Amino acid sequence: MTTAARWGMVAYGVIYLLIGLLALRIAFGDREGQADSGGALRELAQQPFGRVLVWAVGIGLAGLALWRLSEALLGAARPDGHTAKERLRSAARCAVLAVLSASAIAFATGSANGGSSDRQSQDLTSRVLDLPAGRWLVGALGLAVVVIGVWSAVRALRHEFRRELGPVPARLRRAVDFLGVAGGLARGLVFAVAGGFAVLAAVRYDPDRAKGLDDSLRALAATPAGPWLLAAVAVGLALYGLFTFAMARWHKG
User: Fold this and answer.
1) Which residues of 185-214 are buried (b: 16+ CB within 10 A; e: fewer)?
2) How far is CA 94 from the centre of its chain?
3) What is the pLDDT of residue 220?
4) Distance of CA 146 to the CA centre of its chain
5) Closest by alpha carbon to 28, among 190, 242, 235?
6) What is the predicted pLDDT for the residue at 234?
7) Cβ contact 10:244 at 8 Å
8) Which residues pair with 40 in a beta bridge?
9) How far is CA 82 from CA 79, 184, 248, in A?
């Protein structure tokens, strides 16, 4: 299980590294790229032995999802790993990883083409808005994503990721801390932006206001800071991918 988890962390890091690189291209004028998991899978598939690499990522993510499930059921190997809060956090991570794994495997088998996260977000928002009290539900979910984003950024600033790391060589400790903080801040910001658009969709009762990862990143380029903000966040997401590689190497599990 530990081997599967480490493999899965590497696979997860590859996804974030590619999303960061794709977002960086968009910041410098590439209008065709798609900076989300679907775009990352397509980019990976274009490399030598690409289909094999996509399979490896899908299987790795499945292993990581199972490991997070075991944490949810049995508790994590951390001082507070058996608390209800940590078990719930592991269960949420398991659900996200399971969806990513299923998408990668579907892409590898040819039954999916790595569709845009933006279109998927809008379709899902449209279906939920049609439910009784759907507007409130979309707003609540969007607000929850904003809170998760802010919470993730605060956790990164407080170096809480250290609780999951084993002994890191002294010469690399500062570098790993930098990757964890910079990557966590970028990831938290993107989550908060995506959640904000979901809240806006609920307020306006307009599913087209909802945005996936790709459009949330592009929205950063429309701020007064312009493409430079998107470039900074893109670098941060790539650094989060590198941090995940460090987690795979030195995780306590």
Assistant:
1) bbbbbbbbbbbbbbbbbbeeeebebbbbbb
2) 12
3) 86
4) 14
5) 235
6) 94
7) yes
8) none
9) 8, 24, 22
Question: How high is the pLDDT of residue 33?
Answer: 74
Cα-trace Rg, the chain: 18
CB 190 within 8 A of CB 219: no
User: Comparing C-alpha atoms, which of 83, 23, 54 is closest to residue 220?
Assistant: 23
Residues 6+ apart with CB under 8 A from 37: 15, 19, 100, 103, 104, 114, 117, 213
Which DSSP symbol is given to 133? T
DSSP reduced 3-state for 253? coil
Instruction: Give me the number of domains the chain comprises.
Output: 1
Tens of pLDDT, residues 19-28:
999 999 988 8
Q: Which residues of the chain have pLDDT under 70?
A: 76-79, 81, 112-119, 253
Please provide residue 251's backbone torsions phi and psi, each rounded to the nearest 5 degrees: -65, 145
| Total residue count of the chain as it appears in this document | 253
- Whole-number pLDDT of residue 206: 78
Q: Residue 251, SS3? A: strand
Indicate the DSSP class of residue 37: H
- Which of 1, 4, 27 has its CA nearest to residue 237? 27
Residue numbers of the domain that contains 59 = 2-250
Amino acid, single-letter form, for residue 165? L
Q: Is the CB of residue 172 less than 8 Å from the CB of residue 247?
A: no
Task: Report helix, strand or coil for 165.
Answer: strand
Q: Are 238 and 17 in contact (CB under 8 A)?
A: yes
Using a 10 angstrom Cβ sphere, with 0-12 exposed, 13-18 middle and 19 or more buried, the burial of residue 130 is: exposed
Amino acid found at 99? V
pLDDT of residue 73: 85
